[in-house]
Design goal:
The protein has a domain of about 140 residues: Beta Complex (RNA Polymerase Alpha Subunit, Chain A, domain 2), CATH 2.170.120.12. Helix content is about 25%, strand content about 30%. The protein has 8 helices and 18 strands. Helix 3 packs across helix 8. The longest helix is centred in the last third of the chain and has 28 residues. The N and C termini lie far apart (about 65 Å). Its main location: cytoplasm.
Length: about 350
């Protein structure tokens, strides 16, 4: 009976270790373990890791945690890191937007060189729905209403006749000496004035500083905005950042009380560990491991490091998407999913064509 009990406990321990290797990234004192996916078919005896659509649909979930005008945080659970990373890269580089592509400078007497000025204009986010426009053909120099947005920047600096003689403040001495993105005005092409009457096309932010002028200096510029993707140039990227992290997991291996519990709480980010009163003693409890930054500070304490197990859930991705303001973040996520679906369909079509040949 004792032997059977030992075998049973040993098998349970082995199963636990295998499950950790399969589904957890473990944070150790001197390194990170189990960083690679290993749950492929046949790798673990007794586990059926063959692909199954019903199992995937049952396990896969997407939950929106936080959403505002420009930022979105959501959980994507039940997928491999390769798919999550493909989704992140599509958000960065393959969701199209509109941006300044051609800059026609008719007059620039400011101290900023034409090339630098054109580069600054190109990086200003333009609020226009790219889904309503077509890609411009590479051979076309002149744009049309279906593929081009035209903006004008025309500003001339002059002295303020009402400024006091003793003033040295440029804000008071000069008129139009600060050129902002709000000075870029939309010039409709063809029937755009009717089609986009309610679109309010123009820069996302009106307070981006473009140049500073002095009396007599002026800018007279026409800009053409076209549809493009971040893979071609960073100015077309629709996100300021798109990143993910794995869900942290903190397991207390035995009760931690008193002064140890106080120190344990200080080892983690605020809100991760909570102290509860039990039988007159303060006992540490993990209440929200999601808030942890995985600093591994607890591993510096010799009397605490063996009482805590730190890990990350391998298939639970916490995505953070911050839009530049061109499109709402939830729209960007939807468009990224469409791009990924298009890629998959193209791959399947290529396989079908290969089989036919």
């Amino acid at each position: 009976l004792r032997r059977r009990g030992r075998r049973g406990s040993k098998m349970a321990a082995n199963m636990s270790n295998v499950e950790d290797i399969r589904s957890r990234v473990l944070l150790g004192e001197f390194g990170v373990k189990n960083v690679h996916t290993t749950d492929f078919p046949g790798n673990y005896p007794g586990y059926d890791d063959t692909w199954d659509m019903q199992r995937f649909q049952k396990n896969f979930t997407m939950d929106i945690v936080d959403l505002d005008e420009n930022c979105m945080e959501f959980d994507m659970v039940g997928i491999d890191a390769a798919i999550a990373n493909a989704f992140r890269r599509i958000l960065l580089a393959e969701v199209p937007t509109m941006a300044v592509e051609k800059v026609f400078i008719y007059n620039n007497t400011s101290i900023i060189q034409d090339e630098v000025l054109a580069h600054r204009l190109g990086l200003i986010p333009i609020k226009a729905d790219p889904r309503l426009f077509e890609y411009r053909n590479s051979g076309e120099d002149a744009g049309s209403e279906i593929d081009t947005i035209q903006l004008q920047l025309k500003v001339k600096c002059s002295r303020n006749p009402r400024a006091s003689k003793d003033s040295s403040d440029p804000q008071e001495l000069y008129l139009n000496h600060m050129v902002y993105s709000g000075d870029m005005k939309w010039m409709p092409i063809g029937n755009q004035a009717d089609v986009f009457a309610d679109a309010n096309i123009g820069p996302v932010h009106d307070d981006i500083l473009i140049a500073q002028l002095r009396p007599g200096q002026e800018l007279d510029i026409i800009m053409h905005c076209v549809k493009g993707i971040g893979k071609d140039h960073a100015k077309f990227s629709p996100v300021a950042t798109a990143s993910y992290r794995l869900l942290p997991e903190i397991t207390l291996l035995e009760p931690i009380e008193g002064e140890k519990a106080e120190r344990l709480k200080r080892c983690f980010s605020r809100g991760v560990i909570h102290l509860e009163e039990l039988n007159g003693k303060k006992v540490a409890m993990v209440v929200n491991s999601r808030l942890d930054t995985c600093s591994r500070e607890v591993l510096r304490h010799d009397d605490l490091k063996n009482l805590v197990k730190l890990g990350r859930v391998r298939d639970h991705f916490i995505f953070t998407v911050e839009s530049t303001g061109v499109l709402p973040p939830e729209v960007l996520v939807t468009e990224a999913i469409k791009v990924l679906m298009t890629k998959c369909q193209r791959f399947l079509n290529e396989l079908d064509n290969t089989d036919m040949e």
